[in-house]
Write a structure and sequence with these properties.
Structural class: alpha/beta
Number of strands: 7
Strand content: 15-25%
CATH topology: Rossmann fold
CATH superfamily: Flavodoxin domain
Number of domains: 1
Largest sheet: 5 strands, parallel
Radius of gyration: 18 Å
Helix content: 40-55%
CATH class: Alpha Beta
Strand order of the largest sheet: 2-1-3-6-7
Length: 208
């Protein structure tokens, strides 16, 4: 059983989402020593771009054609990235909120791998169908300003809504969420952090 941790924060030891992921992964490993944990830092430079050549390849495949030239190379890179993603049985995403949404490297991963015949199928009458089967995901969502129940001036959540919807669209319906959204202007941050780590520990133990 392979668990892929997809890390979307560039902040290293200063990252709240990565700290919670460490708690989750430690608990998962202690409870299930036989699982294989693989780390994928999305900031490591291995994500290919998704530009004109990749877009041309995608539309060619949609049309039932075979990409050629630079488009074929871009398509091969997209397939290799998808295989790296699909090789895992389950996922842990650590996702800080950036400008109400997800970090752009996570969106880049999603754009690269969300290809016809890989992540989704399409029928002109039935629409999209997710092709990821028998997988589940745990997602750690963090934010420093936005929080449920706070006024609109503190932000809007397009972070969890976007990723949860993409996972369902891709076929991953079993999703567990851990939220850490403290009000940093109050003393509640420490208590909220402790609660989030307790939840991460419990979710890690029960994930498999």
């Amino acid at each position: 059983m392979k668990l892929l941790h997809i890390a979307a924060s560039p902040r290293g030891g200063q990252s709240e989402s990565l700290a919670l992921a460490d708690t989750f992964l430690t608990a998962a490993h202690l409870a299930h020593p036989d699982i294989q944990i693989v780390e994928w830092n999305l900031w490591d430079g291995t994500l290919p771009p998704f530009g004109p050549d990749a877009a041309a390849a995608k539309m060619a495949v949609f049309a039932g054609e075979t990409p050629t030239g630079a488009a074929a190379e871009a398509w091969d890179a997209a397939i290799a990235t998808f295989r790296r993603f699909d090789d895992a049985d389950h996922y842990l995403f650590s996702v800080p909120m950036w400008n109400a949404g997800v970090p752009y490297v996570l969106k880049q991963l999603i754009d690269v791998i969300s290809q016809p015949g890989l992540v989704f199928g399409f029928d002109p009458e039935q629409g999209y169908s997710g092709l990821l089967r028998d997988k589940k995901a745990a997602v750690i969502y963090t934010s420093a300003v936005y929080g449920p129940g706070r006024p609109a001036a503190f932000g809007t959540d397009f972070q969890s809504t976007y990723l949860a919807d993409w996972l369902r669209w891709a076929g991953v319906h079993d999703q567990r969420e851990i939220h850490f959204r403290p009000n940093l202007a109050t003393a509640d941050a420490a208590a909220a952090r402790t609660l989030a780590h307790n939840q991460a520990d419990e979710q890690g133990k029960l994930f498999f």
